[in-house]
Amino acid sequence: MLSSFVKTAFAVALLVGGASGAQAKAEKKDVEATRAAERTGAMLFAYDQAAWHGTDKFIKDVASSESTSVRGYIVLPEPGGRMRVVFYADKEGILVAFRSYSVAGGRSVRALPAESGVPLDARGLRMVAAREAALAYVKDNTLPLCATAAPNMVVFPPNQNDQVVVYVMTPQVENGRIPMGGHYRFEFDSENRLLSHRKFSEGCRVMKTSMEGLGLAILSHPLDDHPTEIHGFLSRMTPFPITIGVANRDVWIASKGKFEYAGRLKPE
After folding, report:
1. Do the Cβ atoms of 7 and 215 come closer than 8 Å?
2. 47-72 core/surface letters (b: 16 or more CB in 10 A; e: else)
3. pTM of the model
4. Of all helices (H) and strands (E), which one includes residue 110?
């Protein structure tokens, strides 16, 4: 039996007119942007998974009455590839770690009781400020999410340009249904001023992970000339490749966070 990737590649070959009719290579700038999207998508997934497993442990450890003062969480990278998930609370006007966990994938989640009550450092405070500013922007500008549940939040620590990047993403609320829309990115400077923001899709398409037949999922993405980190992130959550048609009519196949160029769509 053919693998889902081979089936997808065959179907895409029909769309782009086969090897002889397809553009052999994507433009260099689009390849570079796509490889950057792979890397960022992998980071998004790692941070999101750490938050997920840390939250599961937090819920088991803490009674609902105890967690009423918790305002949110941030995820910090640790040496050795682990992640530290910090649930923070307000204690007499100071943000402190309420509970912290060291997470490695889904295999190892360790509580860090010594951190409880410790004030957040300058980096953590910046990440919290950016997180709250992004949420406020979504609310104040009524940016549409594709679920009524609270959004998933990923906040990266300050980067080499001393900027904090925040992702506000529609959460998955049903098993087997992945929201492909309602995802946003915000960038803040060292003074927590908003530098840029963007949406990653139009509309609220849902991808069913139980799709039968070819298992062929085709997305139209008219906002960019290349796939984005959100495509990389979401493709890690589907059991079959996702075919992405971008603004310049190039076609890419996303599978488990990796992108492969498939060619350019035939002229209409």
Report:
1. yes
2. bbbbbebbeebbeeeeeeeeeeeeeb
3. 0.89
4. strand 108-111
Tokens of 185: 């990115």
CA dihedral 109, 127, 48, 53 (to 10 degrees): 20
Q: What is the pLDDT of residues 158-171, one digit of tens each?
A: 999 999 999 999 99
Residue 105 CB partners (closer than 8 Å, separation 6+): 49, 53
List pLDDT tens digits, range 30-85. Answer: 999 999 999 999 999 999 999 999 999 999 998 777 777 899 999 999 988 899 99
Q: Can you read off the two tokens belonging to residue 155?
A: 């906040």
**Cβ burial, residue 106 (10 Å; 0-12/13-18/19+):** exposed
Per-residue pLDDT tens for 10-30? 455 555 554 444 567 899 999
In whole angstroms, what is the distance from residue 169 CA to residue 149 CA?
11
Residue carrying structure tokens 């009455």? 65
